Amino acid sequence: MEEFLHFPLLPLLLLLLTCSSPSFVHSMESSTSRCPPSNISIPYPFGIAGPGHSPSPAQGFEITCGLSGPILHINNSVFGILNISLMDGFISILATATKQPCSGNYTDFSLEGTNFTFSDTRNKFTAVGCDMVAMLVNGTSGYSSGCASFCSTKNIMVNGTCSGVACCQAPVPKGLKKLSLEFTNITGQLGRHNKDNSTLACPEAFIAEENSYVFSTLDLNLTKSLQYRPVVLEWSIDGGSCEEAKRSASYACRENSYCYDAANGIGYRCNCTNGYQGNPYLQGPDGCQDIDECSIESRCTHGCINMEGKFRCTCPSGMSGDGLKEGSGCKGIGTLQISIVAALALLLLLIVLGFWTHWLVKKRKFEKKRQRYFMQNGGVLLKQQMFSQRAPLRVFTSGELDKATNKFSDNNIVGRGGFGTVYKGILSDQMVVAIKRSQRIDQSQAEQFVNELVILSQVTHKNVVQLVGCCLETEVPLLVYEFIANGALFHHLHNTSAPLSWEDRLRIAFETASALAYLHLAAKMPIVHRDVKSSNILLDKSFTAKVSDFGASRPIPHNQTHVTTLVQGTLGYMDPEYFQTSQLTEKSDVYSFGVVLIELLTRERPISDGQIDEVRSLALHFSCLFHQHRLLEIVDSQVAEEAGMRHVKTVAQLAFRCLRLKGEERPRMVEVAIELEALRRLMKQHSVLKIEGEHLLGESRCNGDMKFDAQSNSSLDGIAKDESMEVILLPSNGLSC
User: How far is Cα 656 from Cα 673, in angstroms, rounded to an integer?
Assistant: First the structure.
């Protein structure tokens, strides 16, 4: 019979003579090592014997590295290692089967004196042969397992089946340390010829991992080569039971681990305590460390708190239970007990008794806060200014505006801008207003804010949104304006399918220019709007223009031509000269109005969108087409049809002058307003004459006797000549265009 021998014995014996076996130590080194080129992990207490390898293996767990991988030494034999399981206490090796020669001799295979036993749960005892009984002998205790195999002809042998025909199997007894085999031939001859005169091999018996061997009739061939099969061994720490080992200095289980007796009754093993993972035979970072259960798949229905070695599930307020998905979870609290009800009733009584005092304290704090905001926002100074200048400004309380806007509900928001949010509100007298919540102002700027507020309150122009009042009792000032129902000019130009007529557009341009001219000249202190754009020109029910949003406006003293300030405005409308010099003048509004005038002519946005890798300025694009006499490419077709290209060119020339880079070359706002009004009157005059001319022509056709003399014709020609003028001449009264 042959042994479970895998590699030549003599070189390994020489290696064992040069290597000592250290006792069991608790290493702080890495818990695993490997034998290249194999990727098989070698966890402690196993280890590679010899210098240069760390950690050192415990006694009885020495492994050496062969050419193809790790090798296990068992007594005088060596075996290739397939796998090592730290948690389950198994090691899988590669071994040859024990063969029974026809002479009836056999050889024992012993694990006695080692930390290993044959696994009774993962191995099977298998015998292959005909008409024989294979017995597994367990030392002096006698037979412990065996099976019988019979054969008649090869025709009844089925590959893959090991149920007693040429192949039989039996369980491996628990705690088996020594493998001894005995064969008994039923016919009295182990090797023989079968009935069909085929030669059968001697019987073969072996222990191999369950399901690793599949019977084949080729295994009965007498010339079959030697086979290597996986065998699973159980390993344990030698030192008696756990109770005995705990009293020993060589006790192997480390922190956060526990000891359990090996199932085969030989020695003990260690495992990490529940809630920990790692190598229970090591201390340090590779030993048993806490598992953060909350960071992996949570077992809690709601909250999870990780603790050392465990975790705890939490339930939301008002719910109770263990919080586990596989437990009771979190459930609402049921009927309260009488004691809890009584306590709550008492608490409610105390709340009712203390409510009045709490309300008084809260009201006093609120009044103090309102007063602090009022002082911070310049309320006292505003009252003094209103009294001295008799400014018609109404000061609202925060409560009035809270009620008017339903506590500033988002449903009442009608606009947002760079200088605040606008809410629609209805005052107690049923007046509809627009309430603007401005940005916070510094206390150092309170005086300037109040002065501007008083100035705006004195601006009375039909084309300027009227400032009704303000509220300074809130953290940010609130300004109250008249409510303009028809929205912004921007919407009517760009976001509607029913565009304004040319007559309405020209009127809106004139009304806007008049309002800006009034701010520049007629107001008590000149005001530069600084943010003129189509979205700040509102239209009321009759489509009358109203200039709005003075959040960026700045007053300019009469003795100054400009003020230096931080650059502020809207892209596409901003004066390039102001952008470069930070000097704000009334000509900055003229430039912005020129862009609005182009919007009215073209219905194009000031900054085009939808261009690929290009952002196009309307002002620049218009100027280029104007110089190239290509206005028809950009002018709105409705405008060209209703106004005629000669009037379009007149307005385009005016817009072009407003867009000159140097402010001193631009017309003043009052000049722009006068030119627009003159153009409106001329268009009305031409419209009336056109209607009268059509009426006279109709009568001449009917009567047949009306004729025009040369003087009449020359009169009509003069009107036609006026209509064809590209630039409207104004009376010379000190104004230059």
Answer: 15
